[in-house]
Amino acid sequence: MENYKRQQENSYKYTLANTNLRAEKSTSANVITVIPALEMVQAIEAEEDWYEVLYKGQRGYIYSDYLSKTKYTWTDVTLRSYPSAESNPVTIIPPKSIVQVLSVSGDWSHVIYDNKKGYIFSYFLSDDGNPPEGYDFKYFYTDMTKFVNDNKIKSPTTNLITTDLENKLTYIFEKNNYGSWNLLYKWSCTVGKPSTPTIKGTFYVSGRKPYFGSDTYRVKYATRIRGSYYYHSILFNAEGTEIINDVLGMALSHGCVRLAVENAKWIYENVLDKTTIIIN
């Protein structure tokens, strides 16, 4: 097996092929250097389709499609030398461990974990490190208020956010005096397209920024779900002066959840860090 530098945190990713490190968030920006395939880079900041990274002392931008995807094990998993249950084991990966996915073929994911490259049966990976059957989702798509209260969902703050990827709806709840959840808002949203899906699982608001974008677009009122995934506004032009795509209720984003401007602004201004988010 080939060895790679140890990945210690979620901030490290791997290039999937020979990749241009660019000076700006644009495919036409100057190329600082070409990073070879399977090189580790440190992700400094993530904004849906671009990562700001550090590589051998050089700082620049890489388009996210050219980088590994972060997943978590939710049980003890065998890393195998080939995509077969009969292949030799490389190591045992403990629960809640970070792996970087290089590619997926059928039921197997090609990954790097703790400087080792191998294959994991994809069922044992998730976006949040929890097993897929963590909640009873019986009412998730038909009665969200019943879902959150029947499952006794906890949040460190007085709010809770849920997003239904099937019906493309985002819900905002407020905790009442009895400890249960009252529905405040139900909003149409746009979610990730099939090739770049929105992550599923339980997450916690982890920061925000007034806007981000590139030389072709800008989004406003971005509240981070995890990593490069955010709740944010519909698309504006690069200057942020004109809406260029206001479509909601579709699956066409790069993984973020798009909302009407006023709704993204409400989350940005009112929902505190550490607030629980459930996406399914």
Task: Report what the structure shows.
This protein is mostly beta strands and 280 residues long. It has 3 domains: 12-66, Roll (SH3 type barrels); 69-126, Roll (SH3 type barrels), CATH 2.30.30; 144-279, L,D-transpeptidase catalytic domain-like, CATH 2.40.440. It has helices at residues 144-150, 261-270, and strands at residues 12-14, 19-22, 31-35, 40-47, 50-55, 58-63, 69-73, 77-80, 89-93, 98-105, 108-113, 116-121, 125-126, 159-164, 169-175, 181-188, 191-192, 201-204, 208-213, 218-226, 229-233, 235-236, 243-245, 251-253, 257-259, 276-279. Strands 12-11-10-7-13 form a 5-stranded antiparallel beta sheet, with no helix packed on it. The protein is globular, with a radius of gyration of 20 Å.
Number of strands: 26
Roughly how many Å is the radius of gyration?
A: 20 Å
Main sheet characteristics: 5 strands, antiparallel
- Any idea of the CATH class of the largest domain? Mainly Beta
The fourth-level CATH homologous superfamily of the largest domain is: L,D-transpeptidase catalytic domain-like
Total DSSP helices: 2
What overall form do the CA principal axes indicate? globular
Helix content: under 10%
Contiguous uncertain segments of 5+ residues? 1-9
Strand order of the largest sheet: 12-11-10-7-13
Average residue-wise pLDDT: 94
**What structural class results from the helix and strand content?**
mainly beta
Assigned CATH architecture of the largest domain: Beta Barrel
CATH topology of the largest domain: L,D-transpeptidase catalytic domain-like
Strand content: over 45%
**Count of the separate structural domains:** 3
Question: How far apart lie the N and C ends?
Answer: 36 Å
Order of helices and strands: EEEEEEEEEEEEEHEEEEEEEEEEEEHE
Pfam family, one: YkuD
Pathway: Cell wall biogenesis; peptidoglycan biosynthesis
GO molecular function, one term: transferase activity
Domain SH3b: 9-71
